[in-house]
Amino acid sequence: MSYKAESYDVAVIGAGHAGIEAALAAARLGCRTVIFTINMDSVGNLPCNPAIGGTAKGHLVFEIDALGGEMGRAADVSTIQSRMLNRGKGPAVHSMRVQVDRKLYSEQMKHTLEKQENLLLRQAEITDIERGEEGWKLTTRLGAQHDVKCVIIATGTYLGGKIFVGDVNYEGGPDGMFAATALGKSLKELGLPLRRFKTGTPARVLRSSIDFENLESQSGDDEPIPFSASTETEIKNLAKCFVSWTNDNTKQVITENLPRSPLYSGMIEGIGPRYCPSIEDKIVRFPQKLRHQCFIEPCGINTEEMYLQGISSSLPEDAQIELYRTMDGMSNVQIMRSAYAIEYDCVDPTAMYPTLEFKNFKGLYGAGQFNGSSGYEEAAAQGIVAGINAARAVKGLEQIVFPRSNSYIGTLIDDLVTKGVMDPYRMMTSRSEYRLILRQDNAQERLSDLGHEIGLLDDYRYNVYLNNKKLKYEEMERARKTVISPSKELNDILVSRETSPVETGVHLAELLKRPQIDYAALESIDTTRPNISKRILEQAETEIKYEGYIKRQQAQIDEQKRLENRTIPSDIDYDDIGGLRLEAIEKLKKLRPLNVGQASRISGVSPADISVLMIYLKSKK
Hints:
This protein is an alpha+beta fold.
């Protein structure tokens, strides 16, 4: 029997990384919000690697924070090791990655949800979703029926979840949780275009069973910086990570057991992630590689579990034990949690607008792995966008679209809804054509004004941003005006850095434009330098050093904005446009792009088709 339960403005299904940001955004924007989870002990769970950030993923975390989101703050509270990746490369690809205490991160997120005004965290499984009189009707397994105005589906890998370990398989979610089976059936009946994806996770092993003596160790940065601009406490490195490698013996064990892998026996139907394959997939796809890296990472401070990053597998348990024990430092390793693959339902994201609302289902939004992406950071980025737009829909406000020219968030969503995905989508810096401008160090400058205008970034965090921005531009102006006189000390520095000495006075900014020179090298002679943070100095240095390239890329963005600003009427009849190729008509009718810029990125729509479309729109203006 069902019964009428409370009504809400916004309901979020799933309390993983997408659901958390979606629910917090909707509640903070004044909507009466509920977030449902199958098990409250799995809120903010990190079922794969216990880390936040990484290449391009770190950019997303900084952007989420700039908008007023929570992921960066929770990561700062629970960090046990912090490293800036790609330091040896240009600033466009510098990416923060932190190991976090898995349990502390989850507890932090759960408590944040519990304390949030306008938000109820509720343990309940949603089994049915249907259209209501003025929105949507959700039914729980216990029979409660909730009327809601907007729904955000953020089911992660729970939707129709199925676990695979060798020839053993069963319905289930991550880490021994229940799968959401009934909801998947309901969404199919509703008419959502679902498909089947697959991902996996490595084993967790006992720390004391590893011999670390001959393994390469990785320590954190000497001066860690926080993800969140509002974090005032010092970030400390409390743990080390280690590196091991596979070898010929590992390859032999895997090769002998390949027929027992569900990946190759045909048991798994779902498509796995291209950029994070299992170890057996690596052995098959890259036979020429002599070895593969394994990062041994702690799951927390108060646990002895170690995570074997890079060695995910769905081989039988006995084969897992055998292959791990072939690797350096792990001849006596003991598995605490076996590796597994998980198959799950997700949606074709081209069925959504860039607002993450479904085109044919008003008030219904999707976020995270449900949208065909992979990764905690990609999920959280979509969650905050879905939460913002669901709240604005409830309040009758215009929806927000993030252009790919102003954020990795915009790039991520545009890729999903315009190009679609054939396998779980992972964000990389190479996906952005504007990555010199979309750096993680200037995320606040790109997005904080919008976050504050929307009402998500509070006054305190906004004022922190404004102060940092003021200090940066004051420092850039000082560098342009400050003249450094020629001296033996200066020329010794320049020669030691393999750049030419000077004979006349030179502006500080001109010295910083030299690739070999940075603020640290000039500290002893830069006598008027103000006492500002290293983070702000690095931002100023990047803006000065790459000024010409940044201006050039900004000109490209300004040109692209011309196309983005040319909107396409929602009732346009593409069949009526003479000169469009049949393939272009078919793609444009299916995806219904909002503007010419989005239309130009659709596979199968050529530059000639865009020219025809522009001429048609001009004639109808």
